[in-house]
Amino acid sequence: MSPFELLQPATLDEALKIMAAPDFAGRPVSGATAISLMRRAGILNVDSLLSLEGLRESLRDIRVADDGQARVDGLATLGEMERHPGLRASHPLLSQVFATLANPRVRNVAMIGGYLSHGDPHMDLPPVLSTLNANVVAQSLRGVREIAVDRLYQGYYETALAADELITGLAIPRQPACAYYKKITTRARHDWPTLGIAAAFDLDGGRIVRARLFIGAATDRPLRLQQAESVLDGQAWSAELGRRAAQAAVDEATLVPDSHGSTAYKQALLLAHLPEVFEQALRAPQPAARQA
Ligand SMILES: Cc1cc2nc3c(=O)[nH]c(=O)nc-3n(C[C@H](O)[C@H](O)[C@H](O)COP(=O)(O)OP(=O)(O)OC[C@H]3O[C@@H](n4cnc5c(N)ncnc54)[C@H](O)[C@@H]3O)c2cc1C
After folding, report:
1. H-type helices in 21-141, by residue range?
2. Best exposed site among 142, 161, 164, 268 by fewest CB in 10 Å?
């Protein structure tokens, strides 16, 4: 590993000033679980790292409002989110995802801002947060903006963040009544997914409404399956409807092979598992918040 300078700001303002300096050519570091591997593998060579550890005490809060919306500060760890009683009640889908995301050692140090900035298309939470319509909060000296998670990723390890921006928060709307994530792995259940399928919807008089469906580990970024959503919207669930939605999903999605599986294998997984995702969503734990 090449030598590097470690910068340790004590405040967010100080960190943003360093990021904005024209001669800054380094990277911010949160839990370092991804960046340290990339440096060790020689994929990422930078001469300075900006540690966010000194900001953590002031940027790790998790708040859930009465209407079920949640806000998570950017330096909260995945483990803190996993264990937060309010978030577990308001967003049981997230608890389900954390159970097989990496392992406790990684979850206890990886922070949500670092996680979402990483941009590996195999990650579990981006398709899940996309179905929930979540936004990241991006901050620089120029100001604060929110970016929808489903617009954050622009390609392999590429995000819409500007070079001087930090993710300082995550805003998650209330979880719909029905939501489920299926992580399909070829090795251990907490391994990287071969395919991830996330769905969320409400029910109105027994009919599916506002269906949102995303897949991960299938292309260079989370992919929304809008044709399949339109097959489902306004319909009562049935096995036949599930088969039609799965076929629509396979027809609309151009899947990319990787070391976990070929295109044909991923298509077969999508066809087989999409109906199950909707059936599980209908039975999944209900969010505690009132359905405003
Ligand atoms: C063994 C192992 C197994 C894993 N398995 C899974 C899995 O099954 N599913 C899954 O989804 N993920 C998995 N991961 C990925 C893991 O979740 C990420 O490594 C982790 O979340 C990255 O978070 P971090 O805080 O450590 O980020 P860091 O490593 O600190 O940073 C990652 C990237 O984000 C940038 N960055 C850091 N903080 C910020 C910020 N606040 N704003 C802007 N940019 C920032 C860094 O410069 C770097 O480019 C696994 C990782 C490991 C090591």
Report:
1. 35-40, 78-83, 85-90, 92-98, 104-109, 112-118, 125-131
2. 142
Closest residue (by CA) to atom 17 of ligand 1?
A: 115
Fold observed for domain 178-283: Enolase-like; domain 1 (3.30.390)
The answer to whether 38 and 4 have CB atoms below 8 angstroms apart is no
First to last CA, the chain: 52
Q: Which two tokens stand for residue 60?
A: 């790790």
Average pLDDT over the chain, rounded to an integer: 95
173, 174, 178, 181: CA torsion to nearest 10 = 50
Residues with pLDDT less than 70, the chain: 1-2, 289-292
38 lines ligand 1 (CB under 6 A): no
Q: What is the pLDDT of residues 101-127, one digit of tens each?
A: 999 999 999 999 999 999 999 999 999
* Ligand 1 mutation target, pool 4, 27, 30, most atoms within 8 A of CB: 30
* Domain(s) of CATH 3.30.43: residues in the chain: 5-55
- CATH class given for the domain over 5-55: alpha beta
The Å distance, Cα 158 to ligand 1 centre, comes to 13
Which residues of the chain form CATH 3.30.390.50?
Answer: 178-283
- Collapse the DSSP code of 28 into the 3-class scheme (helix H, G, I; strand E, B; otherwise coil) and give the result: strand
What Å distances lie between residue 38 and 24, 157, 218, CA to CA? 19, 11, 22
Instruction: Confirm whether pTM is higher than 0.90.
Output: yes
Q: Which helix (H) or strand (E) holds 180?
A: strand 178-184
CATH 3.30.465.10 for domain 56-172, yes or no, is yes
Q: Where in the sequence of the chain do the CATH 3.30.465.10 domains occur? A: 56-172
